[in-house]
Design the sequence.
């Protein structure tokens, strides 16, 4: 079969931004939230220079669970458990609840990461003095 011909037969759809929703999972927002929290945990472990054994001790897990977590194997990890891991790694977690914008058809869950202290500080330029 001609590869080019085969590729032309594949339907292409724009992503919604949530792979789990695109796949039709009923728990798509929760699944994406868990993935984003796990990504943050993995980045913090790396940024703090922790090996998996040390990270496990801090989070109250065993090393194989940390290995699964940083590889995105999240069965057995609830959102609550991931939030406890973040606080055990010295992170403040702030949950903000607000009305959804009127122009959005549905409310949603999002994970927003604040700038890290070691990434520097943004400096706003002052307007020139006349």
Sequence:
């Amino acid at each position: 079969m001609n590869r080019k011909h085969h590729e032309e037969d594949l339907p292409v759809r724009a992503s919604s931004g949530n792979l789990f929703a695109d796949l039709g999972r009923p728990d798509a927002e929760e699944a994406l939230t868990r993935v984003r929290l796990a990504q943050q945990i993995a980045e913090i472990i790396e940024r703090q220079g922790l090996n998996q054994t040390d990270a496990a001790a801090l989070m109250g897990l065993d090393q194989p669970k940390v290995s699964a977590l940083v590889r995105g194997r999240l069965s057995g990890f609830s959102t609550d458990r991931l939030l406890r891991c973040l606080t055990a790694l010295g992170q403040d977690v702030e949950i903000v609840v607000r009305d959804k914008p009127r122009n959005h058809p549905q409310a949603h869950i999002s994970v927003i990461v604040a700038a890290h202290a070691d990434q520097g500080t943004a400096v706003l330029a002052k307007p020139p003095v006349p």
In short: Confidence is low (pLDDT under 50) at residues 119-130. The chain has six helices and no strands. The two ends are 71 Å apart (CA to CA). Residues 34 and 81 are 10 Å apart (CA to CA).
